[in-house]
Amino acid sequence: MHVKEETIAILKQFDIGQKFSDLPVLPKASVLIPLFVKKGELYTLMTLRSKELRTSAGEVCFPGGKRDLSDRDDVDTALREAQEEIGLPPDEVQVVCTLFPIINKSGLLVTPVVGFIDESFCPCPNPAEVSAVFPVPLDFFTSEKDHFGAHGAAGMAGPLHSFHFVDPDSGNQYHIWGLTAMLAIVVAALALRKKPEFDVGFDTDDPFSFFHKILHRRISKL
């Protein structure tokens, strides 16, 4: 089976569907985790936020943002934000699944949406929001080589993950950490069916149970 089709079949098993429909009303946000295949390997596309932004300025993240009133659902939010930030047309994204939501440090309920894009997609970043767009091999997020983990970080469930990535094309160095790093690890572990070489803080065979428990623990404290 082709890498893309095999990955889609794997990830669909972790689609949350309506499992979190009973959650209390919280401010919502979504991120798009774009995947593509290059020379038989899985990659994801990440962005560097503009230093002019009020929140998380200069940080690496996936395209995404807060829910608009006009958005129909979490997928709609992720696709709209990706179009606004990097010029990715919604009809060029093959949505695969939505994963378990996580409450971030700002109290937003963030839902990751995973989708496939074409390898030939050429980003057109909105300079007001994004200062760089770069691809990262998904396997990078399972290797201990450039990973650092710290325990007991405020507001984090499990270890605080941190990676230092050097883009081979531009030579630019990027620091990928926090929620973005955690989401990248989760998708890499699931899609590649590979246990990371470091302690991730959750069961890679059954991540749903861990994040479900963490989510309800956070909600109970609201």
Structure overview:
Residues 26-158 form the Nudix hydrolase domain. InterPro entries: CoAse, NUDIX_hydrolase-like_dom_sf, NUDIX_hydrolase_dom. Helix 1 crosses helix 3 (178-192). The protein has helices at 3-12, 74-86, 178-192, 207-220, and strands at residues 28-38, 41-49, 60-61, 64-66, 94-98, 102-103, 109-116, 130-137, 147-150, 160-166, 173-177. Strands 1, 2, 3, 4, 5, 6, 7 and 8 form an eight-stranded mixed β-sheet that branches. Strands 9-10-11 form a three-stranded antiparallel β-sheet. 23% of the residues lie in helices and 29% in strands.
What best-fitting shape do the alpha-carbon axes yield? globular
Strand content: 25-35%
Number of strands: 11
Runs in which pLDDT lies below 50 for 5 or more consecutive residues are none
Bin the helical content. 10-25%
Average per-residue pLDDT, rounded, comes to 88
The CATH class designation is Alpha Beta
CATH architecture: Alpha-Beta Complex
Q: How many domains make up the 3D coordinates?
A: 1
CATH topology: Nucleoside Triphosphate Pyrophosphohydrolase
Q: What is the CA-based Rg, rounded?
A: 16 Å
CATH H level, superfamily name: Nucleoside Triphosphate Pyrophosphohydrolase
Structural class: alpha+beta
Family: Belongs to the Nudix hydrolase family. PCD1 subfamily.
Organism: Sparus aurata (Gilthead sea bream)
GO cellular component, one term: peroxisomal matrix
Pfam families: NUDIX
